[in-house]
UniProtKB/TrEMBL annotation:
InterPro entries: ExoRNase_PH_dom1 (IPR001247), ExoRNase_PH_dom2 (IPR015847), ExoRNase_PH_dom2_sf (IPR036345), KH_dom_type_1 (IPR004088), KH_dom_type_1_sf (IPR036612), NA-bd_OB-fold (IPR012340), PNPase (IPR012162), PNPase/RNase_PH_dom_sf (IPR027408). The lineage of its organism: Eukaryota, Metazoa, Ecdysozoa, Arthropoda, Hexapoda. Pfam families: KH_1, PNPase, RNase_PH, RNase_PH_C. Transmembrane segments: none annotated. Its EC number is 2.7.7.8. The keyword Nucleotidyltransferase applies. Belongs to the polyribonucleotide nucleotidyltransferase family. Residues 626-697 form the S1 motif domain. This is polyribonucleotide nucleotidyltransferase. Keywords: Nucleotidyltransferase, RNA-binding, Transferase. One of its GO terms (biological process) is regulation of gene expression. PROSITE patterns: KH_TYPE_1, S1. CDD domains: KH-I_PNPT1, RNase_PH_PNPase_1, RNase_PH_PNPase_2. GO terms for molecular function: polyribonucleotide nucleotidyltransferase activity; RNA binding.
Length: 713
């Protein structure tokens, strides 16, 4: 892996070109000087995989790059989570990171390259950032860990772990997809990845020392200490009372805090008059309420809903909600409620990847995919309903990765799992994993293991941004929405009782020691085992009795000489069967058979009846090999003539090469006409195409010139 700077995109605040093999990525970083009015960092990361980088032309109508694909959005989120924690907490200038894929060789990973190049670009720039960070991908083949595996190696790997770390072995971001690997193997992979990241950090730090710009001095959104003291004195007691009132739910607690905010700000406004700054006062109230909430947990080890640190919220599960659905479930955990539905369709409904994503990720098609929906009413808001936004795409991809390892590869149907969040108070993506596992069992999908997911939170206490030496920290199991917002980590982990299938760690502080990560993994594994026990009380294995709504599939073996009859001219017979019965018939080239998919058993019976009638009504007389038959010409073509031996038989081609001993380019040269009868000899069926092999040439005597040549020889 090599880094360079100073040659491309020199107007950007920082730019870096990273290369691994023949894969190259250019990353630029630009940040405005003036802070925005928002109370958070408006960071935008755009990862674009240009088709030209792979030597391709886009396949859309306009033949150019349009909006970002799902894969580009997921990689952009991956880079964002690797960079955001290291920006100063009070830096609010609008910042944009653009990752431009210049060349891709289909062997080395451009995603890891982009994270490291973004780290280099920010380190070299004058943008305030407490990096650098390094990122690696870890694979596991057998019992051997592979650092930054090639695409083909990743195909046979049971682990796909992306880890970003800062100096001093501090973990910044983790994202994992795993084939139900054991906890000890996973922890070993994390340690190995963090160690490898330090090598990359060292190289970028040296590059920064030699080529980096001095960091700019910007106007930071500092809140006056007098304002903090004033708001704390007015609101502390009331906030403590709210956060220690365990009868509150999400809405009532939010309303109570909102009322304290309004009263406090109104009181200060009346005191200072025109000098009142609404933005600063709101920011100060947020700081005070966050400190009070966190300190109560650290001091008392009791959370705002009355739970102890490792306790789960109440869980309830229901399946088989509506009869027309193939599979359905409702999973409720506290005030988070998710409705999952399963749709089973034909193998033709698989999800295909676009050409560039196929080259970089290696995924050609998926017979299982999950779509996640988060409507605004789930959090009592008014908003637009439309295409999935980045957050929905990211949460859906995480839930899909969690379930994919336990879904059988040879399942005869394409599976679409939808997860609609009806209520949300934290960890809706992990609730989608639990509800999805229940719904798949309800649909009769033979999962190898039930899977559950849980979100682990963290409240820490440290001085001067030194997260390496934490004086005190508390790990929270099954976090609420407010604990996610006020806390320092959203650590989502999913898997079976046996092992881990997916993990995503969103860390909001500048890195965590390995010790904290290990404890979070342990807490998550204990919690998901408890959740699986509760889920098993509702349904613990795939439903065995068939539902009327379930689709069915069957295999048909059609003789070669009758396949044309089944298909019909231009596929008209297959289309007619699909329109009248809903059954889809697909030829399986590798097996030489036809797969019949029907939405239910009644449709399957109707389709088979139509196929039987079609083949029996077109039954042909039995022909004898080597016999001579009178054929009738029904059509003249440039390549030959179409003839029938019997009226009930389909026309077959008698090629020009079999019409005469002489070379014929057009049958009209022999004076043939439609309706004319000729003698042909039958040589059976072609073993590949199933077409009849006929010849007129063998019945004709050799031309005189050939006889003369034979006599001379």
């Amino acid at each position: 892996m090599t880094f360079s700077t100073g040659q491309l995109a020199k107007f950007a605040d920082g730019s870096a070109l990273a290369q691994l093999g023949d894969t190259s990525v250019l990353v630029t970083a630009v940040s405005k000087v003036k802070p925005s009015v928002s109370s958070f960092l408006p960071l935008t990361v755009d990862y674009r995989q240009k088709s030209a980088a792979a030597g391709r032309i886009p396949t859309n109508f306009l033949r150019k790059e349009l909006g970002p694909t799902e894969h580009e959005i997921l990689v952009s989120r991956l880079i964002d989570r690797s960079l955001r924690p290291l920006f100063p907490s009070n830096y609010f200038c609008e910042t944009q990171i653009i990752c431009n894929l210049l060349a891709v060789d289909g062997v080395y990973d451009p995603e890891i390259l982009s994270i490291n190049a973004a780290s280099a670009a920010l380190s070299l720039s004058d943008i305030p950032w407490n990096g650098p960070v390094g990122a690696v991908r870890i694979g596991l083949i057998g019992d051997k860990l592979i650092i930054n595996p090639m695409r083909r190696e990743l195909d046979s790997s049971s682990l796909n772990l992306v880890i970003t770390a800062a100096a001093h072995n501090l973990v910044v971001m983790i994202e994992t997809a795993a084939n139900n690997i054991l906890q000890q193997d996973f922890l070993k992979a994390i340690k190995t990845g963090v160690k490898e990241c330090q090598r990359i950090i060292h190289v970028i730090s040296e590059m920064q020392r030699k080529c980096g710009k001095p960091k700019r001095v910007t106007e930071l959104n500092e809140v006056p200490k007098e304002l903090l003291y004033c708001i704390k004195s007015l609101s502390e007691m009331r906030l403590k009372e709210i956060f220690q009132d365990y009868s509150h739910d999400k809405l009532s607690r939010d309303d109570a805090v909102k009322q304290v905010r309004l009263n406090t700000l109104e009181h200060i406004k009346n005191e200072v008059g025109d000098k009142f700054n609404t933005d600063q006062a709101s920011q100060a109230f947020n700081i005070i309420s966050k400190d009070i909430f966190r300190n109560l947990i650290i001091e008392n080890e009791i959370r705002c809903d009355g739970r102890a640190l490792p306790d789960l919220r109440p869980i309830s599960c229901h399946v088989d909600l509506y009869k027309p659905l193939h599979g359905s479930s409702v999973f409720q955990r506290g005030q988070t409620q998710v409705l999952c539905t399963v749709s089973l369709d034909s193998p033709n409904s698989v999800l295909h990847s676009d050409p560039v994503s196929l080259l970089t990720s290696g995924i050609k098609e998926k017979n299982f995919f999950l779509h996640y929906e988060f409507p605004p009413y789930a959090v009592k808001e008014v908003g637009k309903i439309g295409p999935a936004v980045r957050r929905e795409i990211g949460h859906g991809a995480l839930a899909e990765r969690s379930l994919r390892p336990v879904v059988p590869d040879n399942f005869p149907f394409t599976i679409r799992l939808t997860s609609e969040v009806l209520e949300s108070n934290g960890s809706s993506s992990m609730a989608s994993v639990c509800g999805g596992s229940l719904a798949l069992f309800d649909a009769g999908v033979p999962l190898s293991n039930p899977v559950a997911g849980v979100a682990i939170g963290l409240i820490t206490s440290y001085d001067n941004d030194d997260t390496k030496h934490m004086s005190n920290y508390k790990i929270l199991t099954d976090i609420l929405g407010i604990e996610d917002y006020m806390g320092d980590m959203d650590f989502k982990i999913a898997g079976s009782k046996k092992g881990i299938t997916a993990l995503q760690a969103d860390i909001k502080i500048p890195g965590l020691p390995l010790k904290v990560i290990m404890e979070a993994v342990q807490a998550g594994c204990v919690a998901k085992a408890k959740i699986i026990d509760l889920m098993n009380r509702t349904i613990s294995k795939p439903r065995s009795e068939r539902k009327f709504s379930w689709p069915v599939t069957d295999i048909l073996e059609i003789p070669m000489n009758k396949r044309g009859i089944l298909i019909g001219p231009g596929g008209i017979n297959l289309h007619r069967i699909m329109v009248t019965t809903g059954a889809q018939i697909t030829f399986q080239e590798e097996k030489g058979t036809y797969n019949v998919f029907a939405p239910n058993q009644i449709a399957m019976n109707e389709a088979k009846e139509q196929i039987s009638k079609l083949l029996s009504s077109s039954s042909s007389p039995v022909l004898e090999f080597g016999a001579i038959y009178t054929a009738k010409i029904v059509e003249l073509r440039e390549s030959g003539v179409m003839v029938t031996l019997y009226d009930s038989m389909r026309p077959t081609l008698l090629h020009n090469s079999q019409l005469d001993q002489r070379k014929i380019n057009d049958p009209r040269a022999l004076g043939f006409e439609v309706g004319q009868e000729i003698q042909v000899k039958y040589f059976g069926l072609d073993p590949v195409s199933g077409q009849m092999r006929l010849s007129r040439k063998v019945l004709m005597s050799s031309p005189p010139s050939i006889i003369i040549n034979l006599q001379k020889s």
